[in-house]
Amino acid sequence: MNGIMNRFLTYIYRTAAVVILAFSLVSCLEKMPGDYIEESEGMQTFNDAEQTLTGIYSAFMSGSLYSGHLTLCPDIQSDLVYAVKGNSNKYGQFWRWNIRSTDSEIGSVYAALYKIIGRCNFFLEKYDNLKASLTDDGEITALDYYKGEVLCARALAYSELIKCYCKAYSDETKDVADGGVVIRTKWSESEPVRRATLAESYSLVISDLEQAMELLDEEYDSYNNYYFTHAAACAIRARVALFMQDWDNAVKYSTLVIESGTFTLANSRAYVTSTQTFLNYLWTNDSSYEIIWRIGFTPTSYGGALGQVFLNFTKDYHYYYPDYVPAQSALNLYASGDNRYGAYFSTIKTGYESALEWPLLIKYIGNESFISNKIYHVNMPKPLRLAEQYLIRAEAYCRQGKYNLASSDLTVLRQSRYTTGGNIGVNAENWLETISNERVRELYMEGFRLNDLKRWGMGFERTPQSESQEDGSTLKVNKDNALFVWPIPRHEIEAPGSEIKGNESN
Description:
Elements: H1 2-12, H2 46-59, H3 69-77, E1 81-83, H4 92-95, H5 104-133, H6 137-165, H7 198-215, H8 230-243, H9 247-258, H10 278-284, E2 291-293, H11 308-311, E3 324-326, H12 328-331, H13 340-344, E4 345-349, E5 357-361, H14 368-371, E6 384-385, H15 386-399, H16 403-417, H17 431-443, H18 449-456, E7 460-462, H19 470-473, E8 475-477, H20 490-494
């Protein structure tokens, strides 16, 4: 098994991932004949299965997903940043809350997630026949493991679709017709192009994750993984449970990750090099004991540049021209001694005529090995980190009224990030504000904020700050604003045969 897993890893590190399936879509849900290998020719051997799995992982590299729109748009849309006067207007419609169903980002996130789902469905459809044809016990064992990875990938893709394009889960929303996503589990068979309920959508996610956890051996859990493991499935399951207000399972699955002994929070008091702490190194080199799953970029094969809109150093390679700068209200949340501030922000004079000097986001300034190859602002996305699991469990404990346990989890996280101290306590009166603030401090610009506000039923208000763009700087967003839920792409609703109903924001 180890030899097979090592062989699989060589596919991930290739300069260009091998993809045997090319999904060209009319709508995001329809396959274009002629642009993919005939079903009878696809995934006939174990090597084919490895290449198909590699194609699934390569799809996660898309700049529409974790290295771009899926991470950046939700947080830019929220209360975390301000657009600077003279900016390029990148993601401007999200910041101004002027989102339309025809926006390219809305369509590309939707398409990229369904592309992953389509590739997963192909693998799963071919799995039984391929397994029956294999005679090597090692290959049979590995194929089962790969199936677990594929199920985990499909579950994650569906959970992201639900997060972006559906209302927050509640007793009032879970059984509403057309309130969920379009469920596709087949490759070669036609399925109705209509939205399920939110409960049905989450049911598929949970089923996939439960199967994945049965197939993925905990023996292969390790930090810095480029592929899905048992721990990754548990981490996604904990997140889904939190989104579903299932506090018991949020605690159960986050605890499995936290207490596995595999992962450790990046310490801001201990040094990896003479100048960089473990916390700094997490972002400058995309490597840490706390990373559960990261997307495997190399200098010759990578996705989007997360740091571009926050720095734009490549405009003249001398000054920074950020499209967005951190909101002062967010910066104010970091206390003295909180080393996340120094790891995430640096006060720099920009190249704008105004000579704006501001704490710019350097969290995504770029992986050092990429910068050495003159590739700027590119970091490996890290969608699953141990820190989030502590935050999930702390919030779930608060919902259960177990404030002492929540305080302990928050303190453990903060002590790893502080020079000294970091102790914090929560109670029935302050827990939501405390959790909200800590999630901003820890997960700043990692794509969580909009959904957090949506599921908490919270709006926000902007007031202008220094050199902020006038249009959008004064904005009040009520908790029931329809654009907390992104519109379904218009072409999906209008595609031939579609029965998809739009959202209130359509």
